């Protein structure tokens, strides 16, 4: 009985905090992609932006010994890479899906090359505050209401949403559309890079090639689950974080289930919820909240 209780304790002790820690990098990326899609662009390059953010953030932390500088460097790296996506889709009016894949591959290659000397380098990271939370987690949680209030309750947020619905109608209303679209892309890249830095500097405190492990692609899908609403990005990210934390606890508890299968658990659950959401949206067209501009190619 005591051994059984010990296993239960390992499985559930601190599970919520672990889930929040796991969800934080994804939450940054999810908020960023939500903003990008709100201005009418689907950016499949989130994974690449997270990777360059992770390597830049970790490298800056190794050099400076300051975790805050690491987060800043990661955010700037993600924003810079997103400028490539903006250049392709806004200036050159290229296909957004192909451009996003190009940014993804570019980010993966750049991060792998830049990170070769960072493997095994130790860093301090952030010191946990009360309850095991870190400043990175608190920053991510604070951004949810800040972005939600800005997007739905300010004039500039209304303009950004108007551009995402129809650039033609926004122009007719006197809104300069291309700065808004570029701004949404760059802000999305900044938050994705911040998510990558949070992953390497705070969550894992290490660097490894491809360490984002598909989180960027998960963020693109979970935007639909969150109905393009910043307020709903938190429960969507927590869904992934909770299942990842649970899978790690099951491995620590010497579960009979294969560790490789447990590793896929958060992705399988996210995929299942994504499919169910898409089915429901298809059954009720017009109720999903998707920006209409996602279907259009930007025309300068």
Note the main attributes of this structure.
300 residues; mainly alpha; ABC transporter involved in vitamin B12 uptake, BtuC; 13 helices
Can you walk me through this structure?
73% of the residues lie in helices and 0% in strands. It is an all-alpha fold. α4 (67-91) packs antiparallel against α5 and α11 runs antiparallel to α13. The longest helix is centred in the middle third of the chain and has 27 residues, at 177-203. The protein is globular and about 60 Å long. It starts with a helix and ends in a 17-residue tail after the last helix.
Q: For the terminal residues, how far apart are their CA atoms? A: 69 Å
Low-pLDDT residue spans: 1-6
User: So how many helices?
Assistant: 13
By CATH, the architecture is named Orthogonal Bundle
Helix content: over 70%
The strand count comes to 0
Percent of sequence in beta strands? under 5%
Per the principal axes of the C-alpha atoms, what is the gross shape? globular
CATH topology: ABC transporter involved in vitamin B12 uptake, BtuC
- The CATH C-level name is Mainly Alpha
Assembly classification:
single chain
* Average predicted local confidence, pLDDT: 90
Structural class: mainly alpha
> Which value, in Å, is the CA radius of gyration?
19 Å
Number of domains: 1
